[in-house]
Structure formats: structure tokens, C-alpha cells
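Hi all, a correction to my earlier message: I attached the wrong file for DNA repair protein RadC. Here's the right sequence:
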Amino acid sequence: MPLLDLPADARPREKLLSRGAGALSDTELLALLLRTGTAGRGVFQMAQEVLDRFSGLAGLLHASGEDLRAIKGLGGTAKRSELLAVLELARRAMAEQLKAREVFGSPDAVKNYLQLHLARRPHEVFAALFLDAQNRLIALEELFRGTLTQTSVYPREVVLKALHHHAAAVVLAHNHPSGTVQPSRADEALTQTLKAALALVDVRVLDHVVVAPGQALSMAEKGLL
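and the right structure:
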């Protein structure tokens, strides 16, 4: 059913304007973006199917254009491009928040930011947040992919990136596609190797965050740094 055919108090646009965006469910917000469904499949059903496909909004934030193209009703360019634009705006808004203030003023924001970028990758990704002297975000760089060990993550490359960004500190991060955020012995050893290498150029390692869908662990908070 098109949104215009719904009773006025059930239309997400009217509900948003009268009660605020917080009053809408995830499905209603997505339906508002999609506007129409497909033949025999209403826009709310379509919105729910999209959320189910990506296991919720967090998964949808990682969706690529090709991921969306595979969904019936999103094969055309208009809806898909609009949705991708909104998802990218969400990522950039969170990055701006971290660039504007000291990142550890909001540790949950750091974890959420890293989850958005890394948690649902099908393979392991090692990344680093490069920070200025006030611990504000300069850049997020994905540095290595694949099985992460001391032999596959090169300290020299991490040091060079830190120098390139004139970073005063870094937050290391990687994902566990297995779904657990418990750091391995290899993760702990890698952290100590990188901490020692970066100390030689006076760059501090503030944390190493391990992320998986729906969760994140700070090694600093666990006393593993």
C-alpha cells in the first residue's frame, strides 16, 4: 500500500512532523525513505524485509550498492542512490562528532563508529584511528585485511601512516567475523608490538578495540594494553 493511501495518523511523514522522528520505528523511518513498495508488496513490508536482510540498521549501514541491488524494488538507481546517500551521511556525521571533540569524552561513540565501519565485514580488517594532540580524530585508515597476526600487520606501515597524519596518538581496531570480541593471545601480542614501534616516534597507543556485530571490546578497559 502506498503511504498516501494510509490513514493520516498512520503515515510516517505526518507522524514524524507531529510527534518527532523519535516516535517512528526503524521500519517506519526506512519506509519513509523508500516511499513506495512493489506490486503485491507494500512499502512497510519492503522496509522490514530490507532490515531483516541486513540484520537491522547497523547491518544496513554497511550495505554496498551491489548489496542493495539484489533486493527486489531496489534494482533501479533512484531509491538505491538515495538510500546510499543517507547511509553515508550517517557515517560522516559520526566522524564529524569525533573530529570535533576529544574521542574519549564519549568512548561509546568511538565503539559505535568502529562498529559501523568494521563489524560486519566478512573478513578480518585492521584499522587505526589517528588522533591529534587533543585526542580528536584526524582520520580512520583501514590498513590490512585477512588473518591478522604479527607477520601480516606490518608495524613499519602503521608508523608511516601515523607520521603521514602527524598523529600524536592512535586507537587500533579490528573486527572478528566469528562474532566474539574476546581478544586472542595473537591480538595481545600484536598490540604490544605496535605499541613499542609507535613509541619510537612518540605516538601513543590509547586503545585497541575489537568489534563484532552488535558488540565491541576495549582492550584498555580490560587492562590488556
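Sorry for the mix-up. The mean pLDDT is 83.
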